[in-house]
Structure formats: C-alpha cells, structure tokens
Amino acid sequence: MPDTALVVMARYPEAGKTKTRLARALGNEETAQLYRAFLTDLAERFARPRYALHWAYTPPEVDYMSFVASLAPTRARYMTCFPQQGDEFGKRLHHAFKWTRTREFERTVLIGSDSPHISQGIIEAARATLDDADVVLGPADDGGYYLIAMRQPHDVFTGIPMSTSIVLRQTIELATSQGLAVRLLEPLFDVDELPELLRLSTLLQADATIAPATAAQLARMGSFYDLNIT
Q1: Quick one: DSSP state of residue 16?
Q2: What Rg value do the Cα atoms of the chain yield, rounded?
Q3: What strand order describes the sheet that includes 145-150?
Q4: Per-residue pLDDT tens digits for 123-143
Q5: DSSP symbol at 140
Q6: What is the pLDDT of residue 226?
Q7: How far apart are CA 159 and CA 173, in angstroms?
Q8: Best CA proximity match to 168, nearest among 139, 197, 205, 200
Q9: Over the stretch 13-24, which tens digit does the pLDDT of each residue have?
Q10: How do the residues of the chain divide into helix, strand and coil, expressed in percent and rounded to 5?
Q11: Do 62 and 55 contact (CB within 8 A), yes or no?
C-alpha cells in the first residue's frame, strides 16, 4: 500500500447545487457537466498504483464510488471514497486528515476539485516537502490554498474563515502558533468564477493534454460558451 493518501474534496455534480458562482454565468446544467469533466481529469491523472486516491464526497447519501468509477472505469480499482463530515468546511478538511491517519497513511495530500490542471509534479512536490515540514500549502491566487498536506491531522482549520482572501495567511499563522513548520509550494489558480474559467480555457487552448476532459467539454459548449464570455 502506498504510504501517501491523496484526498480530493469533491461533490456530486448536481445541476443547481454545483459551483453556483460559476453557474450564474454558464447556467446550472452546463456547469454541472463542466464540473464532471474536472472530476474525470483528476480521476484519470491520479487513480494509479503510486497514489492511494480517495474522494471525500458530499452529499453523503450519494453512491459516489459508482459515480467516479463511471468517470474512469479502468481506474476504479485505484479509488476509494468516504463521505465528508462536519457542519463547516474546516471541520470537513480536518476530518479527512483524521480519516486517512486512522488508516495508517504516513502522509496525506489533500486538494480541491476545482483545479483540473493540477499536475502530478505538484503532488510529488507536496509529498517530498513533508520530509522537513509539518504543513505544506499550495497558495491559490484568491488568497486561499488549493492544496494542504500533513503527516499528522493537526488542527489548522478551527476559526479560519473559509472562502475568504485571508485563508492562507491565517492558516500559516495558526500553524506557526502551534510550533509547526510550514512550507509553501508554487501558486496555482482554482476555478470558482468566470474569469478563472477563461484563464483555464486559454491554458487548455495552448495544451489540451493538461486536462483533456475539461478541454473537450469546453469545446462541446461551443457557441454557448462564446456567447457568455464576450
């Protein structure tokens, strides 16, 4: 068994309940289909023998294992799912780290599902950086983080106002106040609103192999997508 768990915080792509900020520009159904493509790219990239890929999913009543297996059927044997727990996002993040630790993973790398362009190199860098750090963070351009990695389930979440521009700064402050060594990876953007989607689209126009399913979905959206970005 690999010593590192890779956890993706994800939800079931239900129209009207998925990435609602982006849906205001694209529409509910289009956004749900696009998010499904995000998940497909992550499954295809990371559901491999060298990773123990876990999906921490919501809502809890969904059969998420069947869903992600349908996204990447040949990769299903490399994936595991468990429901998110907690009434706040910080508590859900903390629970994910506790869940993997009770299953004896030495390291846990946790990412969101909003960056289908995240590379294997970034995950490997997070894992390696844990050799001399307690907390590894991947800064997002919006002031949050797209990745957090730890060897132990330290509580660096309580009291942090999630989905704000001060998440990264306050997380670093909370970690250092506990005597934890913090290291930062290269910055990356996640896709929550239309400007980030435009940025991703430009990236994929230059190299669709970065996130093939997402690139294909954007191409299928065609004139609808063009109409909403002009």
Answers
A1: T
A2: 17
A3: 79-83, 52-58, 4-11, 107-112, 145-150, 135-139, 182-184
A4: 999 999 999 999 999 999 999
A5: B
A6: 54
A7: 12
A8: 139
A9: 999 999 999 999
A10: 45, 20, 35
A11: no
Amino acid making up residue 171: T
Structure tokens at 102: 């009770």
Amino acid at position 28, single letter = N
Distance CA 42, CA 115 (A): 9
Q: Which helix (H) or strand (E) holds 38?
A: helix 28-46
Contact call for residues 55 and 81 (beta carbons, < 8 A): yes
Tell me the sheet residues that pair with 140. Answer: 188
Q: Is the CB of residue 114 less than 8 Å from the CB of residue 141?
A: no
* 228: amino acid identity, one letter: N
Q: Name residue 83's beta-bridge partners.
A: 57
| Residue 85 structure tokens | 């727990």
49 residue type, one letter: P
For residues 99 and 56, what is the distance between their CA atoms, to the nearest angstrom?
A: 10
Q: Where are the alpha helices (DSSP H) in 79-211?
A: 89-102, 120-129, 167-177, 194-206
Residue ranges and CATH numbers for the domains of the chain are: 4-229 (3.90.550.10)
